[in-house]
Amino acid sequence: MEVTWWGHATCTVEDSDIRVLTDPLFAHRLAHLRRRRGAVPPTEARHADVALVSHLHADHLHVPSLALLAPGTRLLVPRGARRAVPGLRRLTHLDVSEVAPGDVTTVGDLAVRAVPARHDGRRLPYGPHRSPALGYVLEGEARTYFAGDTGLFDTMAKEVGPVDLALLPVGGWGPYLGEGHLNADRAAEALARLGARSAVPVHYGTYWPIGMDAVRPHEFHAPGDEFVRLAAVRAPGAAVHRLGHGESVRPEAAW
């Protein structure tokens, strides 16, 4: 299996001859956010057998990016997403399914299981409709956990189950992280709780608010290295792969 990080929460996971794309975001700019590091993912990044959306926030459910996916691509979104995000109804070229924690979707020889996340599931700031924020566990030749956006929660290890690889958010897109997020320290604790053999830090060092380059810049640059350092203390048995934008790793080589 192989993982490529394209930036923010967008990754490609290839397992069991199935290509999975997480939280597709192919924009140079999103509202007040500008991509400051890494090129916009190339055309090849848009090709997937199944795309996963973790929650309704626009930097994770980005309708213009989803519109670029190839016809017939399966798209898993949180239950209630089509009611909350009318733009999803226009994506008639995609095979859209709504899922909730516990649901399992089979794609070829790969099982995709939706798991809970501790995060605000609303489509802010557009309306009151709420969908559950999700993570996903991919079960094929390996077991890979894509956390989406989440805070720590007491039943995380039980809900996610044993995994080989964890794709964990370690930062954000602004100088402060609100409730329901992992920073480098909390992500290292999550890795320890999960007992994963490998981890890739994501959701940092890509987007930053326009005009705020000098406001707490360490929150943009440092989370990946901080996670590597803290994971070595909290989960010394895990191999951490800090990827650059567009870089890939085959983590099973370290197992």
TrEMBL record:
<dbReference type="InterPro" id="IPR036866">
    <property type="entry name" value="RibonucZ/Hydroxyglut_hydro"/>
</dbReference>
<dbReference type="Pfam" id="PF12706">
    <property type="entry name" value="Lactamase_B_2"/>
</dbReference>
<dbReference type="InterPro" id="IPR001279">
    <property type="entry name" value="Metallo-B-lactamas"/>
</dbReference>
<feature type="domain" description="Metallo-beta-lactamase">
    <location>
        <begin position="19"/>
        <end position="204"/>
    </location>
</feature>
<dbReference type="InterPro" id="IPR050114">
    <property type="entry name" value="UPF0173_UPF0282_UlaG_hydrolase"/>
</dbReference>
<protein>
    <submittedName>
        <fullName>MBL fold metallo-hydrolase</fullName>
    </submittedName>
</protein>
